Structure to design on (684 residues):
C-alpha cells in the first residue's frame, strides 16, 4: 500500500513537472489567450461566482453586504408570490416556445435544404431576418392594438368571432399567448443557421448508400441518415434555444409593459431586473440570478443527454 | 453515434467491394451476362421507369449476397450505358424516395410560413415610407401609395431640437458597435488561434468553460456585472458595454471550430521559414479565416446594435439608438411614422450585413457543431 502511494505521488509529481515545463514552453500561447481570458473571467466567470456569493447576503450597493444565510431563497419560494408567478410564466414560455422554435428551426432548415441554390439563400434571409431585426417585434403592437382599429381585432370583429375588441396586451388571459407568438416568430436564430450549414455539409454518398440499402421515404432518410450526421449541430441549436427560451424578457417588457397587469407577463428575468435595477436589492437579485443559472445549466445538460440518443 | 454509423457504412462498402472481387475472380460470368441482359431490358424501359435497380432485381431474383454485388456491377454498367444513350441527362433525376404529393404539400407549407415570417418586416418598412395620412387609413394597405422619406428626415428635425440630437444617438450606437465588434474580432481570434492549433495545459479546460458560458450568458450575469463594473468605475461609460462584448463566448466558439479546419501543415511550414507566432497569426491564419470574421461580425453587431444599455449608462448623451426609439414610441400616435423609421434604421444594418455575407457565414456555421 505504502509502495503504491509512493508511486502514485511520484507519478503525480512527474506529471506536474511535465505540465509546468510544457506550460513554460507554451508561454506564447498564454500571451495570446490572455486578453480574452482576462475579460472572460472578469465578466462571465466572476459574475457567476459573485451572484452565488451575494445570493446569501443582503446587499444594496450603499451598505456593506450583510450575510443572511438562506433567507433570500426562503423568501423567494415561500413569501414572494410574484416570483412563483414569474417561474410559472417563464416555464410556460420556455416549454412552449423552446421546443417549437427548435423543431421549427430544424424543419425549415431541412425543407429549404433541397431547394436550388439561389432560392435557398433567399429563404435563409427570409427566415433568419426576424431574429436579427432587433426591435422589429414592436410592430406586433400595431397588429394587436387593443382598440377596434387594431388589425387583428378588426379582422376578428368583421368575421364575427368576437364583438368587443380584445385588449391583447392588457388582458392577462391573452398576454402570454401573444408574447409566445412573437417569440416564436423570432426564434429561428443561430441554431437555424447552424442547421442549414450542417445539412449542406452531409456527405451525399451516404444518401446514395441509403437508397441502396432500402431507405423508402424522406422520413426514414431523415431519421437514419440526416439526424445522426447532424448531432453536433443539434446540440449547438439546443444550447441556443434553451438559453433564449429562459431569458425572455425584452419582448414581454416592451409589449405588455413593465410591470404588466397582474404581473401576468412577468418572467424570471423581469423579476431580476425589478429587484436589481429598480429596487437595488442586489443580494435578492443575485439569488434570482443563481436560480436562473442553475435552471439553464440543468436544462442544457438534460437536453444534451436526450439528444445523444437521437438516431439510434 | 454518428461515428459508429459512418464506420458501419464504410464497413459495408468494404465488404461489398470484397464480395464484388470474389464474384469477379470466381468468374460468375453467367450471372454477369444475365445482369447485362436484364440491364438491356431495363434500359429499353428507361424513359419512364426511374428505378432500374428494382426492375432488374425482380427479373434476376438472386440470393441476397449476390444481389448486392450485382447491384454494384450494374450501377457502373448502367452509367456506361447511359452515357452511350444520352450524352448527358436532360433532366436532373428526382431523388428516388420522394412522393410528389409530399413535395407539393411541404413546399406549399414553406411558402405560407415564409410569407407570414416576412410580413411584419415588410410592414415595418412600408409604414416607415407612408405619409401620416396613410398610416391611419382603414382598412389598411400594406404598400404605401405615395412613398415618402419624410419620416426619416423628421427624425432629424424632431430630435434635432431636443437636448440630445438624433445624430448623437446614432453616433453612440455606431461607436459602441464598431469598437466592440473590432475588439471582439481581434481578442477572440487570438484566443481561438491558440486554442485550436496548440495543445497546452489548461487550454481544453478553458474551452469547456467557454462552451458552458454559452449556456447561460445574457441576463444571468447582468446584476453581478453591474456590481463588478461599479467597483471598476466603469458604470456610465461606453466601456461598460464595449469591454464585456470583447469576450462574447459564441464568437470564440465559432472561430475556434472554424480554425480547427485549417491545415496545421500551413502553420508548421511558416514556422520552419522562421515566422514568429504573431506573424503566423496575422499573415497566415487570419487571412484564411475570413468567412469566420464575417460570422463574428454579424453576431456581435446584432447584439451590440440592439443594445439598449439603459442599465449601465445613465447619461442621456451616451445613450443608444434603441433607447431613443423607446422614447420616440412613447411620444404616442403622432410619432408612429418616426418610430417606424427608427425601427427600419435599427434593423436594416444587421440584415444588410447578413445578406452580403450569407455564404461565408454558412460556411462558418458548418463547423459550429457542439461535440459532447
Amino acid at each position: 500500500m505504502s509502495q503504491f502511494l509512493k508511486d502514485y505521488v511520484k507519478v503525480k509529481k512527474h506529471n506536474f513537472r511535465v505540465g509546468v515545463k510544457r506550460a513554460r514552453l507554451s508561454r506564447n500561447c498564454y500571451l495570446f489567450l490572455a486578453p480574452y481570458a482576462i475579460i472572460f473571467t472578469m465578466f462571465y466567470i466572476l459574475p457567476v461566482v459573485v451572484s452565488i456569493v451575494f445570493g446569501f447576503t443582503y446587499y444594496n450597493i450603499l451598505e456593506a453586504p450583510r450575510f443572511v444565510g438562506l433567507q433570500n431563497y426562503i423568501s423567494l419560494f415561500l413569501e414572494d408570490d410574484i416570483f412563483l408567478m414569474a417561474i410559472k410564466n417563464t416555464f410556460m414560455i420556455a416549454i412552449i416556445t423552446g421546443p417549437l422554435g427548435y423543431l421549427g428551426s430544424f424543419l425549415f432548415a431541412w425543407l429549404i435544404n433541397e431547394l436550388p441554390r439561389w432560392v435557398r439563400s433567399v429563404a435563409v434571409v427570409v427566415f433568419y431576418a426576424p431574429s436579427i431585426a432587433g426591435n422589429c417585434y414592436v410592430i406586433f403592437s400595431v397588429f394587436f392594438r387593443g382598440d377596434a382599429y387594431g388589425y387583428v381585432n378588426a379582422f376578428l370583429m368583421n368575421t364575427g368571432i368576437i364583438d368587443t375588441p380584445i385588449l391583447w396586451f392588457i388582458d392577462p388571459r391573452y398576454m402570454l399567448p401573444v408574447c409566445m407568438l412573437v417569440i416564436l416568430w423570432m426564434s429561428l436564430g443561430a441554431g437555424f443557421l447552424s442547421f442549414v450549414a450542417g445539412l449542406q455539409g452531409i456527405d451525399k454518398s451516404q444518401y446514395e448508400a441509403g437508397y441502396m440499402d432500402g431507405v423508402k421515404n424522406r422520413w426514414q432518410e431523415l431519421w437514419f441518415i440526416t439526424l445522426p450526421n447532424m448531432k453536433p449541430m443539434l446540440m449547438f441549436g439546443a444550447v441556443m434555444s434553451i438559453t433564449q427560451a429562459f431569458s425572455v424578457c425584452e419582448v414581454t417588457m416592451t409589449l405588455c409593459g413593465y410591470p404588466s397587469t397582474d404581473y401576468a407577463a412577468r418572467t424570471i428575468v423581469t423579476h431580476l431586473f425589478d429587484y436589481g435595477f429598480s429596487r437595488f436589492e442586489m443580494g435578492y437579485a443575485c439569488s434570482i440570478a443563481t436560480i436562473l443559472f442553475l435552471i439553464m445549466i440543468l436544462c442544457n445538460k438534460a437536453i444534451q443527454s436526450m439528444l445523444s440518443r437521437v438516431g439510434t | 453515434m454518428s461515428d459508429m454509423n459512418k464506420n458501419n457504412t464504410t464497413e459495408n462498402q468494404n465488404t461489398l467491394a470484397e464480395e464484388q472481387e470474389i464474384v469477379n475472380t470466381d468468374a460468375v460470368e453467367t450471372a454477369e451476362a444475365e445482369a447485362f441482359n436484364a440491364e438491356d431490358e431495363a434500359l429499353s424501359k428507361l424513359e419512364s421507369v426511374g428505378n432500374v435497380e428494382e426492375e432488374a432485381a425482380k427479373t434476376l431474383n438472386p440470393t441476397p449476397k449476390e444481389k448486392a454485388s450485382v447491384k454494384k456491377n450494374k450501377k457502373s454498367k448502367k452509367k456506361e450505358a447511359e452515357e452511350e444513350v444520352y450524352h448527358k441527362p436532360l433532366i436532373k433525376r428526382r431523388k428516388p424516395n420522394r412522393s410528389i404529393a409530399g413535395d407539393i404539400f411541404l413546399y406549399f407549407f414553406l411558402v405560407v410560413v415564409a410569407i407570414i415570417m416576412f410580413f411584419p418586416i415588410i410592414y415595418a418598412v412600408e409604414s416607415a415610407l407612408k405619409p401620416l395620412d396613410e398610416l391611419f387609413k382603414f382598412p389598411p394597405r400594406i404598400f404605401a401609395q405615395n412613398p415618402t422619406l419624410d419620416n426619416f428626415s423628421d427624425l432629424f428635425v424632431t430630435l434635432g431640437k431636443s437636448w440630445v440630437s438624433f445624430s448623437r444617438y446614432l453616433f453612440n450606437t455606431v461607436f459602441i458597435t464598431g469598437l466592440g465588434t473590432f475588439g471582439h474580432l481581434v481578442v477572440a481570434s487570438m484566443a481561438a488561434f491558440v486554442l485550436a492549433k496548440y495543445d497546452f495545459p489548461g487550454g481544453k479546460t478553458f474551452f469547456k468553460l467557454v462552451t458552458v458560458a454559452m449556456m447561460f450568458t445574457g441576463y444571468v450575469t447582468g446584476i453581478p456585472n453591474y456590481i463588478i463594473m461599479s467597483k471598476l468605475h466603469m458604470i456610465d461609460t461606453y466601456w461598460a458595454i464595449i469591454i464585456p462584448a470583447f469576450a462574447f463566448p459564441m464568437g470564440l466558439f465559432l472561430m475556434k471550430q472554424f480554425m480547427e479546419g485549417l491545415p496545421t501543415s500551413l502553420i508548421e511550414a511558416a514556422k520552419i521559414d522562421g515566422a514568429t507566432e504573431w506573424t503566423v497569426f496575422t499573415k497566415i491564419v487570419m487571412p484564411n479565416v475570413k468567412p469566420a470574421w464575417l460570422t463574428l461580425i454579424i453576431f456581435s453587431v446584432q447584439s451590440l446594435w440592439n443594445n439598449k444599455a439603459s442599465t449601465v449608462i445613465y447619461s442621456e448623451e451616451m445613450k443608444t439608438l434603441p433607447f431613443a426609439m423607446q422614447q420616440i414610441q412613447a411620444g404616442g400616435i403622432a410619432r408612429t411614422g418616426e418610430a417606424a423609421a427608427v425601427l427600419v434604421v435599427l434593423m436594416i444594418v444587421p440584415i444588410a450585413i447578413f445578406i452580403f455575407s450569407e455564404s461565408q457565414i454558412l460556411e462558418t456555421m458548418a463547423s459550429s457543431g457542439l461535440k459532447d
